[in-house]
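Think of the structure tokens as a kind of shorthand, similar to the way a musician reads notation: each symbol stands for something richer, in this case the local conformation of the backbone. In the example below we present two proteins back to back. Begin with the first one, reading the sequence and then the tokens, and try to describe in your own words what changes along the chain.
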Amino acid sequence: MSYFEDNIQDFKLAWWWIWRLGTALLVLFVSGMWSCPNYNVWQQKKDGEAVLSRAQSARMVLVIQAEAEREAAYKRAEAIAIVGKAAKEFPEYRQQEFIAAFGEALHHCNNQVIYVPTERNIPIVMSEKNRPTEEKRKNE
């Protein structure tokens, strides 16, 4: 083979590689032009699903908090009813509660002046409705 024929062979081989490379680049370009819009649509769909999921999670948290608050309110109402029932059935309950609160205040509060309402130097622990009136005192 001559030098000219070797160059033609090299030239054909070079063109073959250039044609293959060009075809591959064209295929990549076309597939990119097709896949980019599809990817953007897919990405927007996934973003929407994520936003929806976050909103549903936030709603579930609010529902659970509302249920917990409602249950706590029922428990508080039951506790208030129990304390009210005890106060009605056992009038000395309030006196014991007052004395316990007074003792706790003395225990936790150093160097503090606590006013205790008294009548004739006797602490007043009875409520007004249970307090003996002047007429009852005179009759005694």
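Once you have a description of the first chain, move to the second and do the same.
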Amino acid sequence: MHHDATELLIDGALGEGGGQILRTSLALSLCLQKPFRIVNIRRARRNPGLRPQHLAAVRAAAELGDAHVDGADIGSRELRFAPSALRHGRHAFDIGTAGSTMLVLQTLLPALIRAAGPSVLHLQGGTHNPNAPPFEFLDRAFAPLLRRMGAVVQLRLERPGFYPAGGGAVSADVQPASRLRGLHLLQRGAIKGLRARAMVAHLPDHIAQRELRVLQESLQIPPAECVAQRAEAAVGQGNAVMVFVESEMLTEVFSGFGQRGVRAETVARRVADEAAEYLAAHVPVGRYLSDQLLLPLALAGTGEFITLEPSSHARTNASVIQQFLNIDVAFEAEQRGPGGACPCVPGCRPDERNAVLNLRHRHGPVAGGPGMASARTSLSRAGTRTFSGSFSHASML
């Protein structure tokens, strides 16, 4: 493969070596119009190299960026991506499998919210997939924060698609921001509502009812806020269960997916445990949402939030962002004294440990972004160690 001295070299084998390294690289390459070459793609996976869901993101990014691409083949472990433009307007992408449309959408959104004009995206594939955020996460948790930063993103679920049948459809209307504003999410505020939804497609209703019973009992969700939903329009069978935590500052979404051989109660209990951990920590931003906020906050040049212990996925994003944006990233654990009772949930006590992530630009403004000589993004996370410097790459997929 031809080597361009101006392109950034990304090692896809660092950390867990998954597909998030590629997706974050594609997103930043489009935003900054910076070419990159990634090697060792998913090297340690059982099926290494590019899979159909990764190729879908590559091809979609290539269309948006009028990019020259080498190595976009199933099983390829090396890819070169060189964008030449950023095309707004109408785009339609069919993943062709049950691969997650949400992961493709997350790849494209950062560029589209910085484009020269509005865009409409139509994506077909999976909308509710294991190991990927469901539609409701982007719609209820992530997109509202992007709107607060200045970009108007409206999402529509036209048809749910579950693994392995796929066949789902989602649309996104994106009005870009001339300049992204930073976010400062240091308090969650009072809990305004807890809601649960269990969705079944071509499966017995009792699955949803059993899941909702667990969530109602575990999280004390009022019965009126527990809703069973039949996804009649779905192509194949599927089950998704979600908890929505609505607070003064934002909405968090926790989700799980039914699997053959796994009891409905087990699926719901896992979701309840994640939601309970978030509530008990008394932080505004959950673990998965914190991963997604890193990139837009880095592009904005400023922001801070408090969240849970850094995940390997978050460290992956921090590492890739650091390479593209030429910034220093430091996770700093910070011990604080015992906290008082949490004002939002009776009997809840906040976690007694924090960690701070600082992002500082090394030299001048972000390439292709708003001009500023320096900026700082700090993220507080629960933890016991002190972290500083760069981190190894890791991934969900």
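Compare your description with these statements about the second chain. The domain at 1-85 is CATH 3.30.110 (Translation Initiation Factor IF3).
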